[in-house]
Amino acid sequence: LRDVMMPGLSGIEVLHVIKSNERLRHVPVLMVSALGEMDTVCQCIESGAEDFLPKPIQATLLRSRVGACLEKKRLLDRERSYIQKIESTQARLAAELQEAADYLHTVFPDPVVEPFPVTWKHEPCSELAGDAFGYHWIDEDHFAFYILDVSGHGVRAALLAASAINVIRSRMVAGIDWHDPGQVLQTLNNMFLMERQNQLFFTMWYGVYNKQTHCLKYSGAGHPGAIVITEDGELTELDSDGLIIGVMEDCEYEAEEFLVPKRSSIYLITDGCFEVIGEDRPLLEVEEMFDFLRERKNRGDVIEDWYQLVKDRHPENQLDDDFTMLAASLRSGSTN
Q1: What is the DSSP string of 36-50?
Q2: What is the C-alpha to C-alpha distance for residues 295 and 236, in angstroms, rounded to an integer?
Q3: Which residues contact 186 (CB under 8 A, 6 or more apart)?
Q4: Which residue(s) pair with 30 in the sheet?
Q5: Of 218, 200, 214, 252, which is closest to residue 146 (Cα–Cα)?
Q6: Strand 131-137 to strand 118-123: parallel, antiparallel, or no bridges (unpaired)?
Q7: Distance between first and last Cα of the chain
Q8: What is the pLDDT confidence band of residue 17, given thresholds at 50, 70 and 90?
Q9: Which of 25, 28, 261, 332 could form a disulfide with 69 if both were Cys (CB 3.0 to 4.6 A apart)?
Q10: Do residues 57 and 3 make contact, with C-beta atoms less than 8 angstroms apart?
Q11: Among 286, 239, 267, which residue's Cα sits nearest to residue 324?
Q12: 3-state DSSP assignment of residue 115
């Protein structure tokens, strides 16, 4: 309770001190004033006072105003407590999501230079992505590389993507030929049936390159086909016609072969690399990506440049799907 008129510091000056103190600013203040000081009372209310009492003070009115102030204070304290708990929970969840994102990045291999360059760009549209990829040597002659896209986004999609990639890179399943893309996809399909994965499924492209014969064996499951571009700009799309992984048990996937021309680059992509849809029309189409890759086939920053273009095309520069692109110069030399 503060009287407006006091010796030394006035009531409004004391009010300013209280409301400027972080520890005290939530304490309700009632100003006491004669009716002739209404302009000052209004100034106090604007400065943060809860209410005022006219002189002479009546006990019933005092109890009523103090009770109302204390009830409001209790409600505000409870609200602040809830907000602090929510903020604490949000901070914890954000930290856990970041740990999950960091783990997913450990699943992805580092870019390499020898025996041929392999680079990539992975940008999730939310905290956790449903896209994943990888590459490794099966033996000294055979190089496997692969990409997948789980339906949906978030934690569930990311966990499924990481599980599938770990199966491939660890080759933990015995009795299958990891050189045979069709057999690999069939195995993954039976392992990750959507009825056991909370109705999640994924598309995939898997290839194995023989560095001696330059033959590329590949198979796909409803995924955008890999893109091969030669030195003179000829483009070939390696189609992916198999059924999506997880839809039906014992699906068979056919492996095809492609002889990689000299000085060719191959691109593995997800549909987030080219599908940008506006309210009434496509804002970006796959043919524009083909032309872009042809024109910049020998530039090392082609993936980053294309990513910036895709991001610029999205409204407010916000991706609505994960962006993942991998580039490998499988026959970058005259003999390799």
Answers
A1: GGHHHHHHHHHTT--
A2: 15
A3: 250, 251, 252, 253
A4: 51
A5: 218
A6: unpaired
A7: 87
A8: very high
A9: 28
A10: no
A11: 267
A12: coil
The whole-number pLDDT of residue 333 equals 47
Q: Cα–Cα distances in Å, from 131 out to 34, 163, 234?
A: 71, 12, 28
Evaluate whether 270 touches 324 at the Cβ level (below 8 Å): yes
DSSP 316: G
How many residues in the chain? 336
Quick one: DSSP state of residue 243? Answer: P
Q: CA–CA separation, 47 vs 175, rounded Å?
A: 78
| Strand ordering across the sheet containing 51-54 | 2-3, 30-33, 51-54
CA distances from 157 to 5, 134, 246 (A): 66, 17, 13
Q: What is the pLDDT of residue 139?
A: 94
* pLDDT tens-digit readout, 155-190: 888 889 999 999 998 887 888 999 999 999 999 999
Tens of pLDDT, residue by residue over 103-112, are 777 788 999 8
The per-residue pLDDT for 171 is 84
Alpha-carbon distances of 28 from 2, 25, 50, 83, 229, rounded to whole Å = 11, 8, 6, 20, 72
d(CA 118, CA 326): 7
User: What value does the mean pLDDT take over residues 112-125?
Assistant: 90
Cβ-proximal residues to 215 (8 Å cutoff; 6+ apart), any chain? 209, 257, 258, 259, 260
Contact 65, 72 (CB under 8 A): no
Rounded to two decimals, what is the model's pTM? 0.74
What phi and psi values does residue 70 have, to the nearest 5 degrees? -70, -40
Residue 45: count other Cβ atoms within 10 Å of its Cβ. 14
DSSP symbol at 53: E
DSSP 8-state symbol, 232 = T
Q: What is the CA radius of gyration of the chain?
A: 32
